[in-house]
Specification:
Layout: E1 3-4, H1 6-13, E2 18-21, H2 24-27, H3 34-48, E3 52-59, E4 62-65, H4 69-77, E5 82-84, H5 89-95, E6 99-101, H6 103-112, E7 117-119, H7 130-133, H8 138-143, E8 149-152, H9 161-171, E9 174-178, E10 182-185, E11 188-194, E12 197-199, H10 202-215, E13 222-225, H11 236-252, H12 260-271, H13 275-300
Parallel strand pairs: 1-4, 2-3, 2-7, 5-6, 7-8, 8-13, 9-12, 9-13
Antiparallel strand pairs: 3-4, 3-6, 10-11
The structure holds pseudouridine-5'-monophosphate and manganese (II) ion.
The site of pseudouridine-5'-monophosphate has 19 residues, from helix 2, helix 8 and helix 12.
């Protein structure tokens, strides 16, 4: 069922490091034509750390683990590329549809193919106004039952961050700050909330992964949160102002469901003169590099 690229298959067979990358950020999280450049750049960053990148997407009904240049271009530029959460995988496969995978769908496919380390920008989570909309990303529930290590810059700041942290605690998902005791704020280095565990090297992360396996029990993810460097973060004052406007525009235009996240991200890019895009990219770049180093430490074990 899964189409695993030759390069990824060989790396897995030889126990060499592999890093899974999601594709929703490319198809629906970044503007064209920058999105394709970024997709290529992220794969290059994984290679720089000595690991093999495996970007994941569904093309013509087939889930792909590892894309070639032409396939990456389809994800970036093809009109009609859907956004697929994990619940959308089966209908997409049955219909022969093409779609980009969110964190939940990517993590499920990656784990199914035997990958252990995954890098992204920010996770989905609990939206503000949850009490009215009950909008909580399927990312959380899936990570609560999938044994994968996700490197991210926290959750998108468009979300209710403390509620999301609480949900992760309730669901039993381990969260560790990389070199920090603070939970990062995606575009910002610090969300204002603490984390309970701090890890300071790829080897320490790999040791936690081995401890998870040794303890056995129900599978769940390890979320490693890696802050964007302070000198590359979005100006916190600008962030607060534009985010407030974006949330109001979203409500005023009646945007709901899957469309909420892309709407808010796009609003932020357009109303910060691209500064949110730069901070977003700085965060993702750092996460991808760290994931490369963690997968190398994991492979050495
Ligand atoms: N973070 C970004 N850009 C994105 C996403 C996260 O900077 O496009 C995507 C991820 O794929 C994440 C998804 O899994 O948004 C969550 O969407 P939703 O809130 O609809 O579950
Ligand atoms: Mn949602």
């Amino acid at each position: 069922m899964l189409v695993v690229s030759e390069e990824v298959r060989e790396a897995l067979a030889a126990r060499r490091p592999v890093v899974a990358l999601e594709s929703t950020i490319i198809a629906h999280g970044l503007p064209r034509p920058r999105n394709l450049q970024v997709a290529l750049e992220l794969e290059e960053a994984v290679r720089d750390e000595g690991a093999v990148p495996a970007t994941i997407a569904v093309l013509d009904g087939r889930p792909h683990i590892g894309l070639d240049g032409e396939q990456l271009e389809r994800v970036a530029n093809e009109d009609g590329i859907r956004k697929l959460g994990h619940r959308d995988l089966a209908p997409a496969v049955a219909a022969g549809a093409s779609g980009a995978t969110t964190v939940s769908a990517t993590a499920r496919l990656a784990a199914g193919a035997g990958l252990r380390v995954f890098a992204t920008g920010g996770l989905g989570g609990v939206h503000r106004e949850w009490t009215a909309t009950q909008d909580e990303s399927a990312d959380l529930g899936l990570l609560a039952r999938t044994g994968i290590t996700v490197v991210c810059a926290g959750v998108k700041s468009i979300l209710d961050v403390p509620a999301t942290l609480q949900r992760l605690e309730t669901l039993g998902v381990t969260v560790a700050g990389y070199g920090t005791a603070r939970f990062p704020g995606f575009y910002l280095s610090d969300s204002g909330h603490p984390v309970d565990w701090t890890l300071s090297s790829p080897e320490q992360v790999a040791r936690v992964m081995r401890a998870q396996d040794a303890l056995a029990g129900p599978e769940s993810a390890l979320i490693v949160v890696n802050p964007v460097p302070e000198d590359e973060q979005l100006d916190p004052v600008l962030h607060a102002r534009v985010l407030d406007e974006a949330l109001r525009a979203c409500a005023a235009e009646g945007v709901t469901g899957q469309a909420v996240t892309p709407f808010l991200l796009d609003h932020l890019v357009r109303h910060t003169d691209g500064a949110s895009l730069e901070a977003n990219l700085a965060a993702v770049r750092g996460n991808v590099r760290l994931a490369g180093r963690i997968s190398a430490a994991w492979a050495r074990g």
